[in-house]
Design a protein that fits this description.
The protein is of the alpha/beta class. 50% of the residues are buried. It has a 7-stranded parallel sheet with strand order 3-2-1-4-5-6-10, sandwiched between helices. It contains 13 helices and 11 strands. The protein is globular.
Length: 383
């Protein structure tokens, strides 16, 4: 899929069009055609936008709401979440809490009918296959379809992921937005992201809603700690079986060692993702798909160095084996599937966001990593 313009929602099952092996060519062409031309709903003038945000308190949601609060073109922000949040405590003056769940179509309907722009961030990354599928696919479909059907909504902004590309040895490097979202079936977060992009393309067909889809790499920063939280020594220590945990306890010297297969990866600061998405909310550039990544590439050795840990080079074959074993161990949580991300380089070109949206990320990869580690230490994630 290349650049969507309008959407509805709910992809098919795993192994559907967004799954690994789906080239996405036809859906990409349809999305591109749907995006061409200007939206018939027009673009509102300054100081007039009401923006709905699902997932307003997540790792992208908070920075985005802060960015929208600073925009003179946004007059009202409605953040829908299952659990209450205190907008005043966050220093948010334009933002109000709306209790709701993306799985509840009625609450989604009520949310979007008041808004000019809908931003969909609510998404479950970790959980069982069935749990994530229910929230991610059914919930996203509810948001997409409701936004497209609402006469007032002009734009839909959706946070996809680099994982939508999938982790394939035959993928071009770097990846540009015209490369189809194939996903990786063995990593259901990846497969679901690809499936949702295909769904969105189909739902947008023949509509006049502008859709912006963002594919950020690993989102990091002082409040976005996914990278650290899911290191094996951080995320698995309290969840492995007692005998395994006991073995690690008597060998503490093994804890601060990160294997490095030498596969490069990218980070992007959550604040920089927020500025790109704000540009979409305001209708800048053109609807479509946008890669987001900071300048520079990192390896696991860079991560180990920032943590003050050790790194050891390991053959790529060993990483392939580890990822395959992890996928079969019943006691390991879904986070272990992220081993897939370090088996194959998935590097993105971001020139489109810079040229079309005038996106200028303020943080490079190393600065983003440094801030992420500092945030993890403040949260006592590293002991």
């Amino acid at each position: 899929m290349t650049q969507p313009r309008r959407a509805s929602s709910d992809p098919g099952g795993a192994g559907g069009r967004g799954g690994s092996g789906s080239p996405g060519g036809a859906s990409t062409r349809r999305a591109s055609r749907a995006r061409s031309g200007s939206s018939s709903r027009g673009r509102p003038g300054g100081d007039s936008l009401t923006v709905a945000v699902t997932g307003p308190t997540g790792s992208i949601g908070r920075p985005l709401v802060r960015a929208l609060e600073r925009s003179r073109s946004v007059k009202r922000i409605i953040g829908m979440a299952r659990r209450p949040f205190d907008a005043q405590a966050e220093g948010w003056r334009k933002t109000e809490y709306r209790r709701g769940d993306v799985l509840d179509r009625d609450s989604v309907q009520r949310l979007v009918e008041e808004c000019d722009v809908v931003v969909h961030l609510a998404f479950v990354i970790f959980g069982s296959h069935d749990q994530t599928r229910e929230v991610n696919l059914k919930g996203s479909r509810n948001v997409f379809e409701a936004a497209i059907a609402a006469s007032k909504v002009k734009r839909l902004v959706y946070a996809s992921s680099v994982a939508a590309y999938g982790f394939h040895d035959d993928s071009p490097q770097p990846l540009t937005e015209d490369v189809g979202a194939r996903g990786t079936n063995s990593f259901y977060y990846s497969a679901q992201k690809a499936e949702l992009e295909a769904l969105l393309t189909d739902l947008l067909e023949g509509t006049d809603t502008d859709a912006y889809v963002f594919r950020p790499c690993i989102v990091s920063g002082p409040e976005s700690l996914l990278l650290i939280e899911n290191l094996p020594y951080v995320s698995l220590a309290d969840r492995v079986p007692g005998p395994v945990r006991a073995l690690l306890d008597v060998m503490p010297a093994l804890r601060p060692v990160i294997p490095d297969p030498g596969v490069p990866f990218q980070l992007v600061h959550a604040d920089d993702v927020a500025t790109a998405m704000r540009a979409a909310v305001l209708g800048r550039g053109e609807p479509g798909i946008y890669n987001l990544a900071a300048e520079g590439e990192l390896t696991m050795s860079d991560l180990a160095s920032a943590l003050g840990w050790y790194s050891i080079p390991v053959p790529e074959a060993a990483v392939d084996l580890s990822a395959g074993v992890a996928a079969r161990l019943p006691f390991l949580p879904p986070e272990a599937a992220w081993l897939q991300a370090f088996r194959t380089p998935v590097l993105m070109d971001t020139s489109k966001a810079k040229s079309k949206l005038a996106w200028r990320p303020r943080h490079n990869a190393r600065d983003t990593l440094r801030q992420t580690v500092s945030g993890a230490r403040r949260e006592n994630l590293l002991g």
